[in-house]
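Encode chain A's predicted structure.
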Amino acid sequence: MAGLTFLVIFLLLMVLIATIPQILKRFHIPSVVAMMLVGIVIGPNALDLIRTLNHFLGRGYPTEQIYVVIDAMGLLGLVFLMALAGMEVNLQILSSERRAVKWLSILTFAIPAAAGYAVYTIFDPSDTIGKWVYASLFASHSVGIVFPVLRELKAVRTRFGVAVLASTVITDIASLILLAICIQFKRHEIPGRVTGSISIFDHINAQFLGPWFPIIFVLVIMVYIVLSVWFVPLVARRMFTKLHPNDDARITFFLAGVLVVIFIGELIGVSLIVGAFIAGMAIVRAKAFHDGEHILHKKIEGIGYGFIIPFLFLTIGMKTDLRIVFAAWENIAIVGITLFALIFSKIFSGWLGMRLAGFNNKKGLCAGLMTVPQLTATLAAAAVALQLQMIGPVFFNAIVFLSIGTTLPIPSLVKLFIIKGKIRFDAVEDRLAVAFEPPEEDLM
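Encoded structure for chain A:
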């Protein structure tokens, strides 16, 4: 009977993953939101439910181990999701849509960051580092939400989709770099506070780099991206050409390659989200990756969307406790102003960027709405900021509420807005100037 509890819980979760999204689709609720709702219903009481099943079924896995396994599945789902998002990006296509990507990236970073800085200033004008941290949290997007929504709308391979997805990634990278800079400056005040980090920059005396740190840090990340995009396709080509297109060992090499790129990124302080995306963007450039009518790509998508990725959104929902928002009345003002400032700044900056890029008002508003959700990167950054005392508990609670309040309704509102506004992404002006085809030769 050993492991019976785990098997029963796993069976229940797989049934929920298979059925709930299909049911809620009838109400125009995306599968991403559906899985998060399932997780929220299970909620922070997940451990109590597991203990109850343990008692009812008899001998099973230790409760905490089951929860750790589910959480690890969610982390692996994040890796798959970001890698698949990166695989949808072609550098030639990005260059063909550079005008839209440029405007959307600049404006959706600068305007929300300014709004976050201003909101924090209202409540704590003397905390300079806190202002910049809040600015970075406002500026970040959620690739994990934007990409699945674009995929369900079948808009990934359109001018609109490329502009939104590429700018989301660029803005996320920029916001994480800003947060990392804030962390390093905070270490001047509280040395040794960063625990569990393998980043070399977290173990270098901040005084050694001095004012040159931001420049050096950005340059190191740029080198990391360039080397990944150049070197990974070379290694992938050599490995994939030795294996038959139907050989399942290709999946093993794919995942190993993605994890290596992520690990190197962690060594220099790059978030897992960014590292996985860069790995996917790099490995898809190997021509051998596309042998056999894209068999490997289809296998990875099947494993990811059919099995691993749903656990990501399930675990996010399970970690959500809505009661934290109402724990103290003093949170209400910060939460309200934070929510209003972020939503307004995101929608306005997205609309303005798309309008400057030549898109109409409806698609501009749609793009702005898509940049509103704040999820994994924002929550992870807020947790680090709280641990380092760069923001207080009240501001952290506001960010938690912000993530929940924007992630759950926005994808559904986007779909409803598209349906009611009769927005289409298959018109002639939405077609990409460059086809989604792998390059003829790998870059050497």
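The chain has 19 helices and no strands.
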